[in-house]
Sequence to fold (386 residues):
Amino acid sequence: MRLTRAEWVRLLLLWLAGVDLRLTLLAVPPLIPLIHREMNLDEKAVGALVSLPVVLFAVAAVPGALLITRLGIRRAVAIGLGAVAVFGALRGFGPSTPVLFASTFLMGIGVAVSQPAFPSLVREWFPARITLATAVFSNGILFGETIPTVFTTPFGVLPAFGSDWRWALASWSAIVAVSAVGLVIAAPRRRSAVSMPTTARWWPSWREGQVVRIGAVMGMASAVYFATNAYIPDFLDKSGRHELITPTLAVLNGSQLLTAPAVALWDRLLMGRAGFVGSAGLMALAQVGLVLTPGAGVVAWAFVLGFSAALSFIVVLSLPPRLAAPGDVPRMSAAVFTTQYALGFVLPLIAGAVWDATGIAQLAFVPGIAGAIAMGWLALRLRIPD
Fold:
């Protein structure tokens, strides 16, 4: 069955929504050496700068589900993405570390409260094509993680603003603001029966099925992904390979875009438990390679790491619309996101603390290797339907 023109427009908007959820967040890693030197941050602070929005994804996911229930998808998206655009731009307002972290905090809340709305929007717009809509949305997220790592430095946004990292951050927020307007216009203006039952449940049922286990498995993958984005720039800078920062980050994030064709070819294999276990093994191996490989070999290992982390992400993103009852999609998404991003925040901080305590950059990747191994062990007990 062919897609209508309206459905094509909705797919485009879902793709842009995915881009918006990561664009301002992943604009930071390419700028870390500049921010690090100017703000005089230690490695724990660098880890916190990248992972602070991640912990907010966990803390604010459940309130986000409540917001969707009370106000509807349209208003939740308007509030959430509006905060992302405004506070993402204000992160560099003045030479102030408190302003940098406070704006990052509020930007992270914006992402967190709007993120649970999009699985509901997938169910609302494409009840018979959940897999297709989820793939498009997740592809947008992956593009949102890749675009700023490629086009921030050394060419593109940063040079266009005279190497001022503040204006470079603000420019990405402008894209979020423009695309958010289209999403708000197109989103449902009322709470439909498909998305919101009369009981209007929003609090996650933590003992329901395997929700926490799914979140924990994905949390390990997220932790590894955000930790490597945070520490690769300084790791390469301190090892005399500054020129490899941009290509390594670009490959780490860009390799994720290949997961969509891989899933399309081997969906029965990759969209189940085997996809999680295989991804965990590859993530552990890739981090060992990053630490031990000299020269430009880190770029190849970054490719393996980004690809394997994205495989897990796509599987998890499809689970709430597949497993939950129609009106329970927001609260199941919130439960998964809460567990996932709580773990995704803690591990990068541990990695930074290890680096600060020992002074050995390579040891910052040890917690990530342990996290990947734990992910594989947890994934062995997952029960995922076809």
About this structure: The first helix runs from residue 5 to 23.
